Amino acid sequence: MLNQLHELIYIQVRALIQFNAYLNSDKLVMPDIVTVARKRLTKYLIQKGKYPALGINEWLRYLIEPSEQWLSENDIFDPVSPLWEEGGLSREAEWFLEAYGLPEDFQERPVLKVLSYCREEDEQHGYVLFRSLLTNPDLAVINQKTLTETAGKIVDSFIRKQYLSCYEPFDEWYMYKKCPYCGWSLKKYNGQWRCGRSNVCNEMEGYYLSKWSLQSPDEFDFSSEDQVYRLLSGIHRFILVPGLPENRIYQRLSEKYKVELYPNKDEFDIRIFLENGNLDLDVKCFRQPRHLVGYINHLSDLKREPFQTDEAKFVVPNEYGYASYLKQVNTQISKFRIQVVSENQLFRELGEKEKSI
């Protein structure tokens, strides 16, 4: 369950998404959630002795300011970040929604449809192929020929149709550059190349193994005759980018163990088949430890249960999980008897288990 502050932020974020959709549509009626969000914020502001958000303008004015201007001191939302900036959710608001929201709050509809379909039809192979294609950086921006050929690998017609709908026409590709990390499109903003509106790959550049720079990108190598497509922004942000370290961990494990991607139609990210039983991994790519803490706190008891045993682990990729990150997370979730490990720590523990057998 969300506490009152989580719920307040959550409803503001959801209202902003629907308000933006309303502005970009032909609808004449304001979404009900906007009214609810304004009332909730107004009640909160009055309790704090602040000027109420009586109209749309006042409501928006608060949400484009740093949250410290209206939120009480807390450890769940960055005080210097607004909820909305540059025509979309702020990076902090995206992280918050991923930690505390439902998948339908941030995932693109084709992904949700395929997951639901594959669970109903018990279609494991089709789901793994679908997700694997969406996390391949070489397929982030492609021409019509490659898109058609790739979709042709998917036997199931429903999954194939949804895969095709994960792309959008990208006619102005020549104005962009190719991200050296995820393969998606870089756009120049204030003289700097950025990956997506929230510049999601920027922080990966500082990872100690990285040998690339967003500011030295390559051109896309399409011709003027090509019809070019790119992954939808939501799939880029929530599937492609976090899928890259998932795939790396999977490949590292596959060199020594029998492994499976997305077992039971995405119940976990990776399953390792060991001599003394299976180990399921949920790979979490939250940039800030508070978001992972929030995610684990928000899970139901049933969802947390496997991680309180030796049968499942939360794993933070190396580029996200520095030492103080893991210490902060594990301290704050100790009441659940769950330990989050880094990628390298996982491999050390597996090695130690092998020696003890």
Question: How are the secondary structure elements laid out?
Answer:
Layout (H helix, E strand, L loop, with lengths): L3 H20 L8 H16 L8 H8 L20 E2 L2 E2 L1 H10 L2 H4 L2 H13 L2 H11 L6 E3 H8 L5 H8 L2 E3 L7 E2 L6 E5 L2 E4 L32 E4 L1 H22 L3 E4 L1 H4 L3 E5 L2 E7 L5 H10 L2 H4 L7 E5 L6 H10 L7 E3 H14 L1
Parallel strand pairs: 11-12, 12-13
Antiparallel strand pairs: 1-2, 3-8, 4-8, 5-6, 6-7, 9-10, 10-11
Helix pairs in contact: 1-2, 4-12, 6-7, 6-9, 12-14
Strand order of the largest sheet: 9-10-11-12-13
Tally the helices: what do you get? 15
Unreliable stretches: none
Query: Helicity range of the residues?
Result: 40-55%
Distance between the termini: 41 Å
Radius of gyration: 22 Å
Structural class: alpha+beta
Largest sheet features? 5 strands, mixed
Sequence of secondary-structure elements: HHHEEHHHHEHHEEEEEHEHEEHHEHEH
Dominant shape: globular
Question: How would you explain this protein's 3D organization?
Answer:
- Helices cover 45% and strands 14% of the residues.
- It is an alpha+beta fold and 357 residues long.
- The protein has 3 domains: 99 residues, no CATH class; 130 residues, no CATH class; 116 residues, Trna Endonuclease, Chain: A, domain 1 (3-Layer(aba) Sandwich).
- Strand 12, helix 14 and strand 13 form a beta-alpha-beta unit.
